[in-house]
Design goal:
Elements (H helix, E strand, L loop, with lengths): L13 E6 L6 E6 L38 E4 L10 H13 L4 E5 L18 H12 L3 E6 L20 H4 L8 H14 L5 E4 L7 E2 L4 E2 L1 H18 L4 E8 L2 E2 L6 E7 L2 E4 H13 L5 E7 L11 H4 L1 H14 L4 E7 L14 H17 L2 E7 L27 H12 L19 E5 L3 E6 L5 E5 L2 E5 L4 E5 L3
Parallel strand pairs: 3-4, 3-15, 4-5, 5-6, 6-9, 9-13, 13-14, 14-15
Antiparallel strand pairs: 1-2, 7-8, 10-12, 11-12, 16-17, 17-20, 18-19
Helix pairs in contact: 4-5, 5-6, 8-9, 9-10
Amino acid sequence: MARHEWTSGAWRWRLGALLGVGVAVLALIVTVIRTLPDDDADTAGTSRNGDRVHGTPRTPPGTEGPEVGWGFTHTQYSADEGDGTATARADRLVRGAVGMPQVQALMGWGADNPEPVKGRYDFAAMDRRIDFVRATGGTPVITLCCAPDWMKGGTSGVGHTDWSQAALETAPEPAHYADFAALAATVARRYPDVRHFLVWNEFKGFWNDAKGRWDYEGYTALYNLVHKALKKVDKDIMVGGPYLAMDSLDPRSENASRSVKGSWGAMDQRVLDAFEYWNRHRAGADFVVVDGSSYTNDDELLPDEFAATEKFTAVGTWVRRQTGNLPLWWSEYYVEPADGNDERRGWSETRRVAVQAAGLIAMAEGGAGSGFYWNPQDEKGTDCPGCLWTPTYGPDGGRGLPMFGLLSRFHREFPPGTRYRKVPVAADDAPHVRVLATDRTVLVVNTLDRTISAKVDGHRFDLQAYGVTWLERKR
């Protein structure tokens, strides 16, 4: 199976209809035929030794706690594959951002089906990603999503994985929650240097159509089993959830929250309900995970792209209040609305970096100590808006781009445990700049599409249109 291609092969239901003679009654008999994991399924290339330790585990210093800092998530294309010169260049780039956390999904987004047959494992692609994280000195994090087909009503066996988006994002059936938890434990034993696990991704497959809300009972049941299984492997493994997409709406919308709202819109009350249920019934959590965009579900930026980032602060404040100040992670965050093809190419890179910087500041101000940029590279081409480095599938690839410069510096200057300080900003400049400071560093962002002369922390300086600059503070 080529892991970089999504192939469709939808699961089909067999329907037989029996018509009674002389009556106007239609009786439908639906027979669901599932190929369960069995000895006849194709197991070529798999192993029974999924929990055998892979490679040489190495735990970066300073990762014993529940926060890991600011990094990125590997997706379908990343620097573990491609032209040798390009991958080596990207390797050096990431290695220079010492200890930057890197997230990899269990299945999909660059990883193959880890257990195509019950009890038979294929971790080759995951091994390669973990090897990249180790080689570059990163902090490895695994998102426990998604699930093998046989756990969700699909076909067992190598070569039978349905890589369509709908199939990939189907949740395990309740009867297989324990199987998924067992798979999570297998992964934890295979990679003992992975100390942080996220349980599932955005409640994928947990929407209840009949009730018009999230199936938070189902997700929480899965979460609790996974939490228990991981802690049984090692009590010091850190587990977090619920990885909910913190969707916001036009405040006039039917499901808009009446309490969690701002100039950026209003939270979807159904999301808040799901979060509150998980928070009340979770078996435990070492950190809390959310994701989301600064703009509303209809892609509106209220009132503009910089002010919209204030949503991250408001949501973070609300989440930490609900959880008793558990460490907060943003597993994904988006500040630029996508087009119909889910592309974000409408802004200049200067503008994009400035809004991303404002978003990072807003997350930190909301209490977050960890956040992850989604998707470091495209498959090919030289035009790669918002990428961290140029695509590695060509000899000139793997070169750092402005977003990597911002993210790596943010990671270095604001590590877990950072104590932030307030610094004076001239009254005339305050509406136009975003500022984040510590005892030694100040990050300043110009939110205007023109050069300004700003006075921050006692220093007067020119800041170009959408400029992002770092100041060293006098001690």
